[in-house]
Design goal:
With about 240 residues, the chain is mostly beta strands. It has one helix at about 1-20; strands spanning about 30-35, 35-40, 45, 50, 55-60, 65-70, 75-80, 85-95, 95-105, 105-115, 120-125, 130-135, 140, 145-150, 155-165, 165-185, 200-205, 210-220, 225-230, 235-240. A hairpin with a 5-residue loop joins strand 6 (about 65-70) and strand 7.
Length: about 240
C-alpha cells in the first residue's frame, strides 16, 4: 500500500508536467503531446480552436474569378462552380470510388472515375493514371513522372514534366517550398482525403525560376481571408460557412 501511495504522486506529477509543455491550453478535447495539441477528428488549428466544418471554404476568388464550393456531411467536395455559370464539376462517392463530372454551359463534357484505397485516397482512374503514397499518406509519385517530396509533414519539392504546342517533347520542371513552422493551413476545399495527406503548415515561400513569397490576411477566427502569390502576383480571397 505504501508503495502504491508513493507511485501515485509521481505519476500525477509526470502527467501534469507533460500537459504544461503546450504554451496554450488545448481546446475542444485536444490533448497536449510533444509540445503540440493533438486534436480530435472534428477540430484543427494550433490549439484545436477551429471546427473543421467552419474551415470549409464557401467561395474562393482568384484574380476576379469566383468559385463556389458545396460539400456533403463528411466535408467532402460535391460541387464547384464558376460564378459566371459557364463551368462546374460534380463529385460523388462510394466507399471505393469517386466520380467527377465536368459540365460546360450545363452539359456534361468529361467523366472521370477514380478508384479509392481503404483510406479514401485516389490511387487510379479510368484514363490510366495511377499514383502511390508513403506510409504517412503523402502522395509521392504517379505514372506521368511527377514526384512529391515531404519533410516534417510538409511538401518541400514537386517535380513534373510539361509540354506546349510549340514544344511537344516533355520538359522537366519543379517547385520548392518553405513553411511557417507554427502556423497551420486551415483552408479546406473538401479534397484533403481524396488527395492524400497534404502539407500541415502554411506555405511561406516558393521557388521556381526565382524565390517568391506568400502574404496572408486573417479574420477574427484565424481563417485566411486574403492571400497573394508573389510569383505571379495572383490575388486570392476566401469566404467560409459560419
Amino acid at each position: 500500500m505504501k508503495r502504491l501511495l508513493l507511485i501515485l504522486p509521481i505519476a500525477i506529477a509526470l502527467l501534469a508536467s507533460s500537459c504544461k509543455k503546450c504554451k496554450e491550453e488545448c481546446q475542444n478535447g485536444g490533448i497536449c503531446s510533444n509540445d503540440a495539441c493533438e486534436c480530435t477528428q472534428t477540430y484543427m488549428g494550433k490549439n484545436c480552436e477551429i471546427s473543421k466544418m467552419m474551415a470549409l471554404v464557401k467561395t474562393a476568388t482568384v484574380n476576379g474569378t469566383t468559385f463556389e464550393y458545396k460539400y456533403d456531411s463528411k466535408g467532402r467536395r460535391i460541387m464547384v462552380s464558376w460564378s459566371n455559370g459557364t463551368s462546374s464539376y460534380t463529385y460523388s462517392y462510394t466507399d471505393s470510388t469517386a466520380l467527377i463530372i465536368r459540365f460546360n454551359n450545363g452539359l456534361p463534357t468529361d467523366t472521370i472515375k477514380y478508384i479509392l484505397n481503404s483510406l479514401g485516397y485516389a490511387v487510379s482512374n479510368n484514363e490510366g493514371w495511377t499514383c502511390s503514397y508513403d506510409d504517412e499518406g503523402h502522395k509521392v509519385s504517379d505514372n506521368s513522372g511527377s514526384a512529391w517530396g515531404y519533410i516534417n509533414g510538409n511538401l518541400i519539392g514537386y517535380s513534373f514534366y510539361y509540354s506546349w504546342p510549340e514544344h511537344p517533347s516533355p520538359e522537366p520542371a519543379g517547385y520548392s517550398y518553405t513553411y511557417y513552422k507554427d502556423t497551420l493551413d486551415t483552408r479546406d476545399m473538401g479534397m484533403k482525403t481524396f488527395n492524400g495527406v497534404e502539407s500541415k503548415n502554411l506555405v511561406k515561400s516558393g521557388s521556381k525560376y526565382g524565390d517568391y513569397t506568400f502574404i496572408y490576411e486573417y479574420d477574427s477566427k484565424g481563417r485566411i481571408v486574403k492571400g497573394r502569390n508573389g510569383y505571379d502576383g495572383g490575388n486570392y480571397t476566401y469566404t467560409y460557412f459560419d
